[in-house]
Design a protein that fits this description.
Blueprint lengths: L8 H9 L1 H15 L1 H4 L3 H23 L4 H10 L3 H6 L2 H18 L7 H50 L4 H9 L8 E7 L5 H14 L4 E6 L2 E7 L9 H4 L3 H5 L8 E2 L9 H14 L10 E2 L4 H6 L3 H17 L1 H12 L4 H8 L3 H15 L6 H16 L1 H5 L13
Parallel strand pairs: 4-5
Antiparallel strand pairs: 1-3, 1-4, 2-3
Helix pairs in contact: 1-4, 2-4, 2-7, 4-5, 5-8, 7-8, 8-9, 8-13, 15-16, 15-19, 16-17, 16-18, 17-18
């Protein structure tokens, strides 16, 4: 509580007249006790002097109007030069307030007219110093909230630009301003937005990403959560296991349902390709309810093809290109094997060859495509690739022919 003993008008006047000298004394004490303060540029030290003088004047006014504490103490920080507020941290500001309070305690009480006023001034200085510290914390908290809101807007703009395929200098500049290296390899991860306390869940996503050595940008688009995730730095990034390190904890921050990983791309300007495949996988994921979480977009090629995903059609057609280049025998054997339900003997009879020949050809198919016809999931992928190739006969002859997105059939 503010002491009830009034301070004489003459004492207040003496405090006002002492403002300049007191501010200079505070500046000298700051230079002596705070090594970093002496390294500040002259204009910034002058800014501290201005704030200190305002603080002394506010203290004198506050003694006669204690109910205006918040307005008067906050005013000392509102008049501070903007560069000063950006240069000084909250910890440094609190150190300055502590030094100024010590100087106030040394110089102001002797200005009292009697012992009662001396006691009032001592108590008032302590309370005023506390109010100044709280005002500083309020100013910095407001600045942090403003910066956080601005960063969130920039982040949303970068993620939206990636999804829309609007890779330009503005997107790269915004990502760099957020601390995301635009030249780093990355992948896009998509899933549903967390249902319960999404802010905390997204905070966990960021924390786990940083712990695994990744930079991250997060965008919420309605019920869809989109995460741009850089590859881990160092040697771990060169191995598949290192590339997937820490993804499990990150995926836990997504809402229920599938989480799809887009392929790794070289830099931010190429992230549209990863986002397109990840989003295509998210649309098609319900067609494979037993898919792992997370699941790579490339592991959903059949389902994506059924959804009309042009990227999936191209990938499936390219999957058979090595078989076509190796000659028709491998492609014919794969077709007969799959059409015959995966029965080796019946396939050999249909082709009029020995079963060992079928085994050899199927082994070559596995080597060239990375898919094993005898495994159910790989067989489904290969069968869908055969159907896609039949529907796109022109592209089978030239599998690298480019098409526009959405052109599934010619």
């Amino acid at each position: 509580m503010m002491p009830h003993v009034p301070v004489r008008r003459s004492t207040v006047r003496r405090l006002e007249l002492a403002a300049g000298g007191l501010a200079t004394a505070c500046l000298g004490a700051m230079e002596d006790r705070l090594p970093w303060f002496a390294r500040l540029p002259a204009e910034q030290r002058a800014g501290v002097l201005l704030v200190t003088q305002t603080g002394v004047s506010n203290f004198a006014a506050w003694l006669t109007h204690p109910g205006e504490t918040i307005r008067l103490t906050a005013e000392a920080f509102r008049i501070a030069p903007r560069d000063l507020a950006r240069r000084l941290s909250l910890r440094q500001t609190v150190e300055l307030v502590r030094v100024a309070t010590d100087v106030f305690e040394q110089h102001l009480p002797p200005l009292a007219a009697d012992d009662d006023e001396h006691r009032v001034l001592v108590e008032a200085i302590l309370r005023f110093g506390r109010e100044i510290a709280f005002a500083a914390a309020t100013v910095y908290a407001g600045a942090a909230e403003t910066r956080g809101a601005w960063d969130a807007r920039l982040e949303a703009l970068v993620v939206d630009a990636v999804v829309r395929g609007e890779a330009d200098d503005a997107m790269v500049s915004r990502a760099a301003a957020l601390g995301f290296d635009p030249a780093a390899a990355l992948r896009v991860v998509v899933g549903s937005t967390p249902v319960d306390v999404p802010e905390e869940a997204l905070g966990e996503v960021r924390r786990h990403a940083h712990r695994s050595g990744r930079s991250v940008l997060v965008g919420v688009q309605g019920q869809r959560l989109i995460v741009l995730l850089s590859e881990p730095s160092g040697g771990a990034a060169r191995t598949p296991a290192g590339s997937l390190r820490g993804l499990g904890r990150i995926v836990d921050g997504f809402g229920p349902g599938p989480v799809v990983l887009g392929p790794v791309v070289g830099d931010l300007t190429a992230a549209r390709a990863s986002a397109r495949e990840a989003l295509g996988g998210l649309r098609a994921a319900p067609g494979r309810p037993d898919a792992p979480r997370p699941v790579a977009a490339d592991d959903l090629l059949p389902e994506r093809a059924l959804c009309g995903d042009a990227d999936a059609h191209r990938a499936l057609t390219a999957l058979l290109a090595p078989l076509h280049a190796a000659g028709g025998a491998l492609l014919d054997t794969l077709t007969a094997y799959l059409d015959g339900g995966g029965a080796l003997e019946s396939c050999a009879r249909a082709l009029f060859v020995h079963p060992n020949t079928v085994r050899y050809r199927l082994r070559r198919v596995s080597e060239l495509t990375g898919r094993h016809p005898s495994e159910p999931r790989d067989a489904q992928v290969l069968r869908t690739a055969l159907v896609t190739a039949r529907l796109n006969a022109d592209e089978l002859r030239n599998p690298y022919n480019e098409r526009q997105d959405g052109d599934v059939l010619r």
